[in-house]
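Please, structure for the following, as tokens.
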Amino acid sequence: MFGCKSIASLLDWHISHRSNDGIWRIPADTPAWKHIDEKWPTFRQEPRHLHFGLGIDGVNPFGARSSSYSIWPIVLVNYNLPPHLAMKKGHVMLSLLVPGKYKVKNMDVYLEPLIEELQELWKGVQVEDISRPLSTRSFHVKAILMWTMHDFPGFGECSGMYI
């Protein structure tokens, strides 16, 4: 649908599409995004810095409620992209898939490598933006986990409070 050049150029889409009337239309209009902008002004200076949402939910793949098998897909959503793309297949990043015969005992064990990678992204990594002219392609990108999305059992798994 879109080539790499098009997606890279959409990372700063939210800058020109913010609401001026106080109505939340995109994630950049929300108090969470504004809080990040106020708390870390240097993060705001580069509009291509990434704002992620993390989604976690347990699924019974066989559909039987009495089944003891569960699977927990853990996804990252890039909220820099336009809303009509952010949640589309191909843009939602499946970060982990935690299968198990029984309920996951300690989700932290599985989340630890993802958290380490998010911490590395918070410090920043050098990347190339091929949508820019050759002299300005290389830049330092950072990422922040803006919020998590889950149901109540997912909240328990995500927060370390095992229900």
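The radius of gyration is 18 Å. The chain has a mean pLDDT of 77.
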